[in-house]
Structures are given as C-alpha cells and as structure tokens.
Amino acid sequence: MKKIIHHHYTTWALLLLLSGIVSCKSDKDFLMEKPTTFYTVENAYSTSAQIDQSLIAIYSQLRDLWANPAEEGWIFVFRGNGTDMYDVASIRRGSTFNNYGLINPDNGTFFNFYSTWYQLIAKANLAIWAADLPQISWATPADKAYALAQARFFRAFAYRNLGEIFGGVPIVTQPTTVPQYNFKRSTRVETYQFAIDELLAVENDLPVTTTAGGRLVRGAAQHNLCELYLALGTQLAAEAKTTEANAAFAQSIAYGNKVIDGGTFSLMKNRFGARSTEAQGNVYWDLFQEKNVNYQDGNKECIWAIQIDYAAYRAEDGKSKLPYSRTYSPVFRDGAKDHLTGTAENVGGRGIAQMIPTMYTRDDIYAGQWATDMRNSDIVFRRNFIGNVPSSPYFGQVVPWNVMYNGSADPVTNMNNRSLCYPVSCKIATDKYTGIADGENMSNLFRDDYFIRLSETILLRAEAKQRSGNKQGAADDVNLLRDRAACTYRVTAADMDDNFNLILDERARELVYEECRWNTLLRMGGTIAVDRIKKYAYWPEAKATLTFNYNLWPIPQTVIDTNKDEKLEQNPGWQR
C-alpha cells in the first residue's frame, strides 16, 4: 500500500512540473484535466498482496471499532452504553444514551452504527470483486480461497450486526460506482439468511487454526452461524413459524456443538500463561493478562482476537492500544476524594469514567446465592480499595462502600458519587502497566482483546436449547461456566425463566466489557430490551422518558431521506 501512495504522489509531482512547461497553451487547454495516471476501481489492484491489504484494512477498522482508541461516544453505545449493563457518570450526563427525549431517528449514533457496517461491506465487496480480476495472480488456489473467505466472513459479520440491530436492511453485494437512491429493504429473516449463506459458503475455506493471532479461523464462522441461526429462529418464532424456528434452533445447537465439542477449543480450567505462577491470580484472571489472550499463547478459549502491539504503538500506530483504564475505570478522586485519590494501579489507573457499570452489573448479579463466584473475586472484580488520603479515617484501610456511596447528607451528591465509584474489572485495568518507563500514564492496556471467546458460544447454545424447550440442557451449558468459575450455586432447569433473565444475568457475569449488549437485547426481541433498560438504567431519565416499546433501532432518518426513489419503512415505535 505504501508503494501505491508513493506512486500517486510522484505522478502528481510530475504533473505539476509539466504544467510549467506547457504554460504557453490557452487557459482552456490548461484547465482540461488529462492525467497520465488515474486510479479507478478497474486498475487499482494489480497483485494479490493489495487485496490482502484491503482485508487488513477491515481488520484495522474492526480493531478501532472495538477498542475505540479515539474515544468516540457512539462506539461506547456500540459497546453497550444505554443498556441494562452500562450508563454514564454524573460528569458525563450530556452524553447519555438513556434519555429518550433526545433519542430519535435523527440521533447520530444510529447513523454512525449503520454507516460503519456499510463501509465495511463496501470494502469486503471490493475485495471479493477484485479477487477475480484477470491481472491478479495467486500463489495457490488455497490462498485465493482464504482471501475470499475472509472477505465474505466480514460481509456476513456486518449483516449479522445490522440484522440484529436494525432488522431488515438493503443487501448490497457489488461495489457501487454511481449514486443510487433506490435501495430496497430486505426482511430481518432475509438479512440473517444472507449472512448464513455467506458463512456456509466459506466455512471450510477458513483454516482450523493459524500460526499467528488475529486472522480468522473456521471456529469464528461456526460461532457466528450458531448466533445467526439462533437469531433467525427467534425471529421466525416471533412470526409464529414454529416448525421453521425449531429447525433453525437445531442448526444453532449443531454449530455450537462444532465449536464447543469439536476438539479445537476448550474452556481454560487451570492456571496458564505469563503470570500463572503468581499466587494472587486465578484462571479467569489469567484470561485477561498480557501475552495470554491468543490461541497461539496456549489459550484454547480464544476463537478470534483483535491484535494490539505496544512496539507498533510506539513506532507508528497510535491506535494500537486498549484505552480501557481511561475510558471505563472509575474516578475515585472525584467521587471519594476524602479517602481515595490519584491515578495509580490501586484505583484502576487513570480513569475518567466515560462509561460506567450500572448497579445491576456491579452488585445485583452477585447478590445472595450468586455471590461466591470466581468472577466476583477481588482479583477479578476489585471491590477492596485502600484509603490513600492521610487525613482520612480509612487511611491504609479498606474504604467501605457505604462511605463512598453515602458520604454526604445530600442525596443528589450521593447519587453522583455512586456513579463515579465502582468495582474495577481485571478486563479494564491491571496491576502491571506496560510503558510506564516510556511515559505512559496508566490510561491504556497493551494486551490483545477478544472478539469471540468460547464462553459466548456456550451461552448462545444454552439459549438455543432453552428456546427449543430443553431447559435442562440450557442449565447444563450455563453450569459449564459456573463450574469453571467455582460457583457454589449451580443452576437448574427451574432457573431458566421464559424471559431469559438467567441467560442475560450469566452473560453479564461472564462477558462484562466483552459482549455487545445491544445486539443481545434486540436480537431477543419482544420487550426484553425496553423492560431491562427501564429496570436497570442508572439515571431516572430512562424510566421517565422511555414511554414506548421497541425491539429494533430506527433506520437513520438520513438514510430514509436520501433513498428518495424507494420508500424505506421506519421500524415500529420510531415512526414520526
């Protein structure tokens, strides 16, 4: 890619030089553009390596979407802000995504989400089209098949996300070279089915494993097929197509089985990795330490991970970081400043609380019989913070939560403080920050991060079993995770409630800061999303302003308005 850019600028330098030589020509002739080199869709690709660079650009886009190095507000929503699990701190009320007096089809978050997936689809379409150009030479047929498999996976992945969030959307499979104003919406079922067909077509062209981390493997396609068939079955059931729904659930279970029982992936049940000899940790904590995330690191639970590289960050790639300690960690120095201050490891790094866990995420899911759980241990979900302000009566001691939460006679101040002070997950902070000697300030983690972890596959299969009527099988799957987490309470078939609260609670315990919660809630349909937002949102505006039901986000109004030659129907609940 650097060679292409260099050649482009060299060409324009020559054109500028030639413009001086031909200056005696008429103004009209001079103003006529006659470039000797002009890049078009047809001639932009000349080697298979350039197509691979297009794929790398998609990997890079997904990394930035996931890690959010630029700290874009809409990406915090993509990662779950505004759901039952996350909200905003008192100091960031202006960026709330829970005030439905402000949330409508004109909201930029919806357009950013929608357009980002179509940008990815456009890149994938171009790579798929270019792979068959006559001037492209491939080292082996397998190389071409893998390139196409990655591109079609990305296209399917984008449509899965669009289908779960927006329902039926236009299916675009070719590069678009001229303006088009007549895109037609598919149905939600058709969107899911398109993504399924794409993944079925390339499943066996993806390798079982790779030598280096980050590249797609077969398990990633099978995991997404598990989720897509589950989503398809849920939608078919909502349309009262019971037989078809059950067939889809059976396929979801079958693809879950391929991943879970296929012999390639397995839950990590024993200490492993770079810090496994340290007495303080446990196997769940090991999953989120530097050099432990990739399958190639011995982590058999990792199906697909984004790649973060500290050396690249220092040299040229300033986005190669996880700014989680900055964006997700609490601000004790504001909320509990009489007892805790600073930006050190013992308070979760240099947190500014861009997105906070709700009381549901931090406390409710661990209440009562759910408390004894490795995922609730202090090393994993730190709740014990030692006072570091000399004048505090808790200096050198654990500061009680009732002191942090209720340190004022003013209930408004207490509510604000509770939004700034909360437990710190090992997924967003560490006790050993990389780069301190180089001037880093405990804002960033420099480990890889999961796109797909086997735990989520297990929870998807559990849901598919429950939707098939097999509640005991669903409970058995949930207990695979609860056994690994050394929980004292094991769930039973009776716990598998029809509103999927048990599944959603277990997802919150296992996948906090990992899953895209909006996808989960909206995929489930009905009033699940609305009910849980009203119940668990931190601030009262959600319950006060969410006065209508929805189970899809609105099609962005900008998209509807610009598609002038074909009417795009707005999703229920969002019509003007």
From TrEMBL:
Record domain RagB/SusD: where: 302-574
| Residues spanning the signal sequence | none
Known Gene3D superfamilies for this protein? 1.25.40.390
> Which UniProt keywords are listed?
Cell outer membrane, Membrane, Signal
What are the annotated GO cellular component locations? cell outer membrane
Location in the cell reads:
Cell outer membrane
Record protein name field:
Starch-binding associating with outer membrane
